[in-house]
Amino acid sequence: MVRTTPRFSDAGDEVIELELGALVREVREELAAVGAVNCDLAELTVEVEHWRRAARRAARYLGRPVRTGVEASGVWAALTDWPATETERVRHQDRLRRVVAAAARLHPDEDRP
């Protein structure tokens, strides 16, 4: 995630908006590429609600529906219509195949059909 250092000024909200700009761009790129993004709480340099706001903004820019959430370890955002295009479906299937292949290498002694 983009590392932004929170600053305080009389402009308050304006500063927050400026800081979120780079985060919105980064989240937008990740959402467009894989349909979801997450960030560990320890890595956040903005407040949780500001991160979620940036994620919602990124999805609006893409014209896509999104859900955001917070868990004990981090924050996440996922496009609810992913995969929506053939390109996204192919990309999604490729990533799933790679995950399954990696998991299979971790358990080589187990029987496989």
Q: Mind explaining what this structure looks like?
A:
The protein is an alpha+beta fold and 113 residues long. The protein folds into two domains: 81 residues, Ribosomal Protein S8, Chain: A, domain 1; 31 residues. 51% of the residues lie in helices and 14% in strands. It is built from three helices and three strands, in the order αβαββα. The protein has a three-stranded antiparallel beta sheet with strand order 1-3-2. The chain is globular and about 60 Å long. The protein starts with 12 loop residues before the first helix and ends in a 7-residue tail after the last helix.
Provide a concise account of the structure shown.
This protein has 113 residues and is an alpha+beta fold. It contains 3 helices and 3 strands.
